[in-house]
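Service request form, structural biology core

Requester: graduate student, group of Dr. S.
Request type: structure prediction, single chain
Budget code: on file
Notes: please return the result as structure tokens.

Sequence provided:
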Amino acid sequence: MASIRRSGLDAIPWQFDLTTAVVETLKRHYGTEDIHAALEDHIVSVGAQRPPGLAPAPLVQGVEPDEFGVAWRMDPEDLAVGDCGHIISPLREPSLAGYDFPDGNRPGRWDHVPATRAQHPDHFLLAHGYGLFEPGWALCGFENYLSYLAGEPQFVEEVTEKLADFSCQVTTQLEGKGVDGIRFGDDWGFQDRPMLQPEVWRRFFKEHYRRIYGEARRLGLTVMIHSCGNITALLPDLIDVGVQVVHPLQPEAMDVEQCQREFGKDLSFWGGLGSQSTLPLGTCEQVKTEVRHRLKLFRGGGYILAPAGAAPADTPAENIAAIVETAQEQLGKRG
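Core staff response, request fulfilled:
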């Protein structure tokens, strides 16, 4: 919190999103099952549980959908790369006829959170929120959804409003649970630019995001967003709608120094270590050099040190350990 507020800062915090394969590698490296403790991760994450009594029927054998009716089929070749698979979408046409939208007011989604808070009293407790763009294309299929943005705007507007209602309803239930912040995930970026023209993003989504993020801030939560890719063109809009922290700041896609220089007064950044470059492909010394650069650049705060997205499956354990060792230098534990 001190880093986000840029006051009373004793050290830049650090955090890790890790693919399943890297977690297993780190267990062997550290000789422990408790990787979170071994890495001295400053953030503990909690996701919403499926409400009691809700059990959607499988779409295909062995694949259980979420309450939107969306399922991800995970094959071995998917796990060899990361933790995403093949999506199975319930809407085949640009219509909600016959489709029952899930009820965000159903209780029980966050009943497990107070126990997590009690177990980790001195960590930043982060909830995962619901976005708009990714759930929208998950419902329809990615290519279909992009075509609907162009040719079926009324349908997209209807879906987006319902998704925003759902997100606000789920977020409201976090009140009094002891959560510090909430990260909403929506990947808007290609490697070199937003997937949508900024004016299209503003037309369909901006005011709905303002409503979603406003509900979180009403509860006193720090509002964080995740979007892979280059979203530099959207950063002024994100500031306008109430975002406080942007993740993952991919150095292969965004100019880290430019982001800090032009937007660091209004935004904190979380990430910045090359998950497509330095972490899987670099040496330990190259990793340490990149970490030291980020710590120096953000020495006044407004930063959470982390891989720019989940460290991919081929990341050496030594490179993850090098991040921790270098970050600990701030506290006089190393070097």
